[in-house]
Amino acid sequence: MRTFVDLSLDIYHGAPTFAWDPKCAVIVHNTVDTIGYNISQLSMSTHQGTHLDAPFHFVRDGKTVEQLDLHKCIGETLLVDLSHKQAKAPLTVEDFLPYEASIVPGARVIYRTDWDLQFPQPHYFSDFPYMTLELAQWLADRRIGMIGMDVPTPNPTDYDPVHHILLGAEIVIVEGLARLRELAVDRFFFMAAPLKITGRDGSPVRALAMLEDGE
């Protein structure tokens, strides 16, 4: 038997996002009373809530969402526990060295800070533990396939160079994960398939961990 753990933030009308991003709207379009069935309209960023960044997000000629190799965001994944990190603390290469043997070309890696507990407070988008430029380059040098995190973006101030380093190395970034603390293992099967949005930069995902009984 397998157990699924939902690692996604909720999408709802007015769900917060970065100040400069499109706002999230979930609008009733028609109802059972008006036309015989319920149907809603969604309007939101490609980077709303739990989502995936494709290289095109920051790289002018980078791969777009529909061009991604889904093996990068679906498969066996390493969980790096950094839940001891405080607000605004740097995440460094030294934090990842205990896991270095598993951080190899093509690897899927997720780090846990438990920062999702701060959602939807405004400081969720600004005060989280952040990835240093050196760590981003270290991960890029190891040619991993995916880096995931339970914060809204890797770095709130140096977001441009960090994204360029990671996405320039064709590392898929999964941001805004939740409830990683419910996983009692450091390796698990992870799924974060994007919508097949042609020619664009990212997509919301329903992120899941699949655990075998006993894990």
TrEMBL record:
Pfam families: Cyclase (PF04199). InterPro entries: KFase/CYL (IPR007325), KFase_sf (IPR037175). GO terms for biological process: L-tryptophan catabolic process to kynurenine. Transmembrane segments: none annotated. One of its GO terms (molecular function) is arylformamidase activity. This is Cyclase family protein. The lineage of its organism: Bacteria, Bacillati, Bacillota, Bacilli, Bacillales.
